[in-house]
Structures are given as C-alpha cells and as structure tokens.
Amino acid sequence: MAWTIICNLEEIPSLGSRIIKSSEGDIAVFRTSSDEVFALFDKCPHKGGPLSQGIVHGKRVTCPLHNWVIELESGEAVAPDEGCAHSIAARLEDGKVSLDLDESITAVA
After folding, report:
1. Phi, psi of 37 (to 5 degrees)
2. Cis omega (within 30 of 0) on the bond before 45?
3. According to the 3-state scheme, what is the secondary structure of the chain?
4. If you placed Cys at 81, which of 8, 10, 41, 77 could pair as Cys (CB 3.0 to 4.6 Å)?
5. pLDDT digit string, tens, across residues 47-83
6. pLDDT tens figures, 86-106
7. Cα separation, 62 vs 79, whole angstroms
8. Domain membership flag for residue 45
9. What's the structural domain count of the chain?
10. pLDDT of the residue at 107
C-alpha cells in the first residue's frame, strides 16, 4: 500500500469531513464520533451530491441532496437505494490520518 499522510486527526471535525484534492477528483475524509476515519470520493452515487457536506452518523453519511445514506466503510448505498461511492483505505496512526493513494490517485495542493 502507498500510505500518504494527509493531515492530523484534529484537522477533521468530529462527525464531519475534510476535502482532499486529488488527480481523480475530490476525496472526502470523514471522522466519526469515536475518531474512526474513512475516505470516499466526494460524489453520491445517486446524483453526484457532495457527501462531504452530508451528516455523519455512526459509520454512515447522509447525502445533503436527496438523503441517500452511504456506508463509510464500503461506500455502498443503504437499501432500498443502490449504488456505490468509491472508497479509499484510510487509517489513523499516532494522531495522523493517512490514505492509501496508489499510482492512479495523487494528492494535489
């Protein structure tokens, strides 16, 4: 895996997100109330809504446009909705948040 440190945990609001620009589009990095971190491309599978502006609850985020609920771990829409937001492996070590950015995804300033 190609782990890239992107920020400190404190730079992501609890029950919120932070946007990381990449060569493939914006990535939303989410923080749960228990300080778990997850990353999804910032597009709801329904109509491309900005998941980063949604409400984080448990290990899910609700899209602000049409209330689709997306699993943060997998990017899968919760039934009865169908679809998937592309997920990216994220981890937290020593207060630092890292993403697994392979050769096809490059973080940009």
Report:
1. -120, 145
2. no
3. CCEEEEEEHHHCCCCEEEEECECCCCEEEEECCCCCEEEEECCCCCCCCCHHHCEEECCEEECCCCCCEEECCCCEECCCCCCECCEECEEEECCEEEEECCCCCCECC
4. 77
5. 999 999 999 999 999 999 999 999 999 999 999 999 9
6. 999 999 999 999 999 875 576
7. 13
8. yes
9. 1
10. 67
Dihedral, CA atoms, 93, 96, 100, 102, nearest 10 degrees? -130
Range of the domain at 37: 3-100
> Phi then psi for 51, rounded to 5 degrees?
-60, -30
Q: What is the CATH number of the domain that holds 43?
A: 2.102.10.10
Q: What is the rounded distance in angstroms from the CA atom of residue 95 to the CA atom of residue 92?
A: 6
On whether residue 9 sits in a domain, the answer given is yes
- Which amino acid belongs to residue 42? D
Domain annotation covers residue 37: yes
| Integer CA distances (angstroms), 80 to 15, 60, 68, 70, 83, in order | 24, 15, 10, 11, 10
